[in-house]
Amino acid sequence: QLLSLHSDFFSNLFYGQFIERNQEVKEIKDISGAEFVSFLQSLHSRRFEFNSVRSALDTLAFADRFLMPRITKEVLPYLKRNSLSEDLLEYALTVVDGVPNNKEVLTWILTHYPSKSKVLEVVHDKLSDDSISKESALVCVKTSLKRLRELEDKEKPGYMDMMLRVASSPYHYAGLHLLYFDASRKRVVKEEFTFICIYRGYGGGMEKPTVNFWTIVPAEYTTVTINGVTYNRNEDVPVDGTGTVRNVVKAKAYLANA
Q1: Mean pLDDT within 202-208
Q2: Mutual orientation of helices 69-80 and 103-110 as an angle, nearest 10°?
């Protein structure tokens, strides 16, 4: 009864029109027994006191899975009052993805990424990760770009403002994560994240969308490699996919004498 009072999931499981209703033992898969027992004890005492951010995230995962919005409301303030360790970043993103109206707590998570490279990594990986929703992915983009604004180089005023406008655009843009290599082709000397417009051929003979990287890449870099394919300077570079902001292209640029 306690579970049914707090959870639509368990109310349907115990009293709904499902086969499981008549089973003496009801199995719940993919869950830690010890963590669930601890969750039940807190539920029974009607007090959720967390001894760590990890335990709060575990409780949030249970509350989301078992449709317990009241418990969710108790967890979120605790999380936002505390710091998030780097080893919990990926887990936190996955857990929070299912929480309704999660923009504020997603922002809290992303502000804990410690460096520019980590921000770039979450943008690059999460936009194409089917484990999170489109809505959460968009929040990741916008929040990550705001984080990049804090880290932007002084010689590029307004650069991040442009990127934020593009992130909200319904038109055809691709994210570009560009790595510049030294003459040895082994060491990255610079990395850049930006958005570029994709040129589409309407009756012009283009079979695939293309991007002109060379308006961005300095003249001393004469080749770019994407997915193992090398393109020479001024060649059109095919881009697979829809060409929306959800796509992130990772490119490697090499010097002329490399």
Answers
A1: 41
A2: 30
Whether residues 180 and 251 fall in one domain: yes
How many residues are listed for the chain in this entry?
258
Alpha carbon separation from 96 to 13, 52, 65, 89, 133 (Å, rounded): 24, 16, 11, 11, 11
Q: Which domain holds residue 146?
A: 86-168
Phi, psi of 165 (to 5 degrees): -65, -40
Q: Would the pTM of this model clear 0.70, i.e. be above it?
A: no
- Distances in Å between the alpha carbon of 91 and those of 66, 85, 131? 18, 11, 11
Count of beta carbons in the 10 Å neighbourhood of residue 169:
13
83: helix, coil or strand? coil
How many percent of the chain have pLDDT more than 90? 0
Instruction: Identify the DSSP state of 198.
Output: P
Q: How far apart are CA 52 and CA 46, in angstroms?
A: 18
The pair of three-digit structure tokens given for residue 153, joined into one six-digit string: 């180089």
End-of-domain residue from the set 82, 109, 125:
82
pLDDT at 23 over 70: no
Phi-psi region of 42 (alpha: psi -120 to 50; beta: other; left: phi over 0): alpha
Domain end marker among 103, 137, 168: 168
